[in-house]
Design goal:
Layout (H helix, E strand, L loop, with lengths): L6 E6 L28 H7 L10 E6 L3 H7 L8 E4 L5 H15 L4 E6 L7 H17 L3 E6 L10 E7 L12 E7 L4 H10 L2 E11 H11 L1 H11 L4 H8 L8 H6 L5 E6 L9 H5 L3 E2 L5 E2 L4 E3 L5 E4 L7 E3 L4 E5 L4 E5 L6 H5 L8
Parallel strand pairs: 1-2, 1-4, 2-3, 5-9, 11-13, 12-14, 13-15
Antiparallel strand pairs: 4-8, 5-8, 6-7, 6-8, 7-9, 10-11, 15-16
Helix pairs in contact: 3-7, 6-7
C-alpha cells in the first residue's frame, strides 16, 4: 500500500433530493441527512477513511446549493478541500476536477473516488478491501473498481463481469483482483438472475482506485477533453476562476462511459463487506425498527389493524396514527406529509415534478 501521505480520497457529494422527499430536498439530499440517528451518510464516508487517508488529503465535490451544509458536516476538513461545482455535468467532469485538484498537490498520488451516499457499517472490512485496492493500483497499470458481491438478482444496479485473476508481479493482498471483462448496464430481472447464477458478476458500486499517472494517461487516450481540463486545473494560478470558466464547458457524461468502459486495463476487487446504496424509502426501511404487524418506523407511532407500513416521523413531538391501512409509506416533516403506496416507491421522484418549487 502507498504511504499515507501519497493517498488521497475524492468524495462525490452532489445529487438531488428527490427520492427521499419530503425528508430530502435539493439543498439537503440523502447524504446530508441523519437517517439512522448516528450521523449523516457523508459523515460516515469521512469516518471510514480514518487511518487510511489523512484528513488533509480528503477532498469533497458538491454543488453551490449544498455547499453550506457540506461545510457544516465536514468541518474537520480544510476549507479548501471542499469545492462546489459551478454546473451539473455528471460524474466524468466531476472526477476530472478532482484529478486536477489532486495532481496540483501530488502528481504521483494514489487516489480513491467514493460516493458519499452509501451505508457501510463494517469499517474494518471496508478498510481491508480499500488497502488492497490501493496496493493494486500502485503496483499495476490498471484502473481498479470495487464490486459488491451480489446478494440477489437486482435489476436496479449496473454489473461488472469479472474475468481471470489478475497477474500482477509483486502484489500481495488478501483480496486479489480480477481482470474486468466488461461493464453491463442495468439488466432486466431475468438477465440479472442469469448474472447471479454464473458467480462472475459484481454490482458496480461506483468506487474507483487508481494511480494518478495511470488514470491521466488513460484519459489522454480515451477522453482528451477531460485530460486537457485536468491539466488546466493542475496548473491554474487562479483556481476558482479557472473552475468557473472551464467546468461548465465540459460535456456531461458518466465516468463509466467516458473512461472505465474504454480503458486498456480495468481490475475488479469484489468486496464482501456490508453495503447498501440506500436508494429508496424501501432501503431505509430495512434499517428501521420492526413494530407490531410488520410495520417499520423510526419512532413510536400508534396503529390499529394496519400492517406492512413504513413510517418516518421527522416532526418530533407529533404523533402518527394508522387505522386500517396496509402497504403505505408515511413520511412527516415540518412542512410536508407524504402518503404513498410502498409498491410505488420508485415513482416518488416523478411525484416531485408536480410539487411547488418551494417544497423541493
Amino acid at each position: 500500500m502507498p504511504i499515507l501521505e501519497n493517498t488521497y480520497a475524492l468524495i462525490l457529494a452532489g445529487g438531488s433530493g428527490t427520492r427521499f422527499w419530503p425528508l430530502s430536498r435539493n439543498s439537503r439530499p440523502k447524504q446530508l441527512l441523519d437517517l439512522f440517528g448516528d450521523g449523516t451518510l457523508l459523515e460516515h464516508t469521512i469516518r471510514r477513511l480514518e487511518g487510511l487517508v489523512p484528513l488533509e488529503n480528503i477532498l469533497i465535490l458538491t454543488n453551490a446549493l449544498q455547499e453550506t451544509a457540506v461545510r457544516e458536516i465536514a468541518g474537520m476538513l480544510p476549507a479548501a478541500n471542499i469545492v462546489a461545482e459551478p454546473a451539473k455535468r455528471d460524474t466524468a467532469p466531476a472526477v476530472a476536477l478532482g484529478l486536477g485538484l489532486v495532481a496540483a498537490r501530488n502528481p504521483q498520488a494514489v487516489m480513491m473516488v467514493l460516493p458519499s451516499d452509501q451505508l457501510i457499517r463494517d469499517t474494518a472490512a471496508y478498510q481491508a478491501v480499500m488497502r488492497d485496492a490501493l496496493a493494486t493500483a500502485e503496483t499495476s497499470d490498471g484502473l481498479v473498481t470495487i464490486g459488491i458481491r451480489p446478494t440477489w438478482a437486482c435489476p436496479a444496479y449496473g454489473y461488472i463481469e469479472r474475468g481471470a485473476p489478475a497477474a500482477i508481479p509483486g502484489l500481495t493482498c488478501t483480496h486479489p483482483p480480477c481482470e474486468v471483462k466488461r461493464f453491463r448496464e442495468k439488466p432486466n430481472a431475468e438477465l440479472a438472475a442469469q448474472f447471479l447464477a454464473t458467480g462472475d458478476f459484481s454490482w458496480n458500486a461506483g468506487m474507483f482506485v487508481w494511480a494518478l499517472p495511470t488514470v491521466i494517461r488513460q484519459l489522454a487516450h480515451h477522453a482528451p477533453e477531460l485530460a486537457a481540463f485536468v491539466a488546466r486545473i493542475r496548473d491554474a494560478t487562479d483556481l476558482p476562476a479557472t473552475i468557473a470558466a472551464e467546468f461548465p464547458k465540459l460535456t456531461p457524461i458518466s465516468i463509466d462511459y467516458a473512461l472505465m468502459e474504454k480503458a486498456a486495463r480495468v481490475l475488479n476487487i469484489e468486496a464482501g463487506f456490508d453495503w447498501d446504496d440506500v436508494g429508496s424509502w424501501l432501503s431505509i426501511a430495512k434499517h428501521l425498527d420492526l413494530t407490531a404487524a410488520g410495520n417499520l418506523a423510526n419512532e413510536a407511532f400508534t396503529q390499529l389493524a394496519s400492517s406492512n407500513n413504513i413510517v418516518f416521523n421527522a416532526r418530533h413531538g407529533t404523533r402518527i396514527a394508522l387505522l386500517g391501512v396496509d402497504d403505505l409509506i408515511v413520511v412527516q416533516t415540518a412542512d410536508a406529509l407524504l402518503i404513498a403506496n410502498r409498491h410505488q416507491a420508485d415513482s416518488i421522484k416523478a411525484l416531485t415534478d408536480l410539487l411547488p418549487p418551494d417544497l423541493l
